[in-house]
Structure formats: C-alpha cells, structure tokens
Amino acid sequence: MESFLTLDYELYTDIQQLTEDKEKLTRQNEKLTHEKEHLLERLLHEEENVSRLKIEVTTLQTKMKNMVEENTQEDEDEEDEEAEEAAEEAGGGPSNRNGISGGPSTRNGIKENQCRFCSKVLSDITGRIKHENLHLATYECRVCGLVVNRGSELRRHMLSIIKSRRSRLRCTGTSPRQV
Q: Which residues pair with 110 in a beta bridge?
C-alpha cells in the first residue's frame, strides 16, 4: 500500500511539473508572437523607406534623362533653324506649306508624354513620370516573395500578415516571385 502511495505522489509531482512547464512554454510562445508582430511592423516601415528611396531615385533618373533629351532637342532645333536659314538664303522655302518644320509634340516618332514601356500617352510630364514609375518600381514581400508595383499594395499585404495570427510567418500571396 505504501508503494502505491509513493507512486501516486510521484505521478502527482510529475503532473504538476509538466503543468508548470506547459504554462511557461505558453508564456514564452505569447512573448515570441508579440516580438514577431513587432518585427514585422518594423520591417514594413523599412520596406516603405526603401520604396520611397527607389521612387526618388527613379524620379531623379527620369528628370536627368528628360534634361538630356531637352538639351539634345534644343541642339537639334538649333541645327534645324540653321539649316532652314541656310535654305532660305539659298532660295529654298520653309519645310512645309505652313512654314512649320514639325510639331513639338513628337520627337523621333514618339509623343512627348508617351510612356516608354507601354506607349500610353498621358496628359502631362508629371503624369507620365508617375505612370512610368509603376513599370519601374517593384516592392517585394520579404515573407512570401509577392511582388507588387505600389508601396500601398505592399503595406496592405504586410498588414494582413501582421493581423493574421494564424499565418506563422506564411501568407497567402498568390503571385509568383518576380524581380
């Protein structure tokens, strides 16, 4: 009888120890989950900073390219004016019936506010630059590899990951990895 009591006491002690261990592991798991959510939020903010910098770099590159094109166009215009002046001095007439050598809206067969990637024509240069940034900028989810063209789309995606506690660092991004 005494050996049964000893065994019962040992089992009781073991059960208590296991229960305490389980509670300790549960607390650690909650702490890690909270830390994971905090890190994902920090990652989101860093992604936004990188995205903003990419857009700024792309915008500056586009502005530089436009400046080079404008300078090239000015040089071509000066050469055209000199050629027309020389033709008029030699007795020739202007380039067409209206005396206009070509409209400023096209350059080498490409319209001034036409997207370089998809040929869409936009109303002004600012709209064209913003539109072209959609082709150039890519934002990639570091968790699942989903690639989107807008920072706002990545932000919404990352927030859905953070809010979903069931995700366990997985998400439902269906887009194949692109870069």
A: 107
Q: What token pair was written down for 123?
A: 């109303």
The pTM for the full model equals 0.33
Q: Would you give per-residue pLDDT tens digits along the chain (179 residues)?
A: 567 677 788 888 999 999 999 999 999 999 999 999 999 889 888 888 888 888 888 888 888 888 887 777 777 777 777 777 766 666 544 444 434 344 335 555 567 888 888 888 988 888 888 888 777 777 888 888 888 877 788 888 888 877 775 545 555 555 444 43
Beta pairing partners, 139: 148
At 38, which amino acid appears? H
Q: How far is CA 156 from CA 42, 56, 80, 137, in A?
A: 14, 21, 52, 17
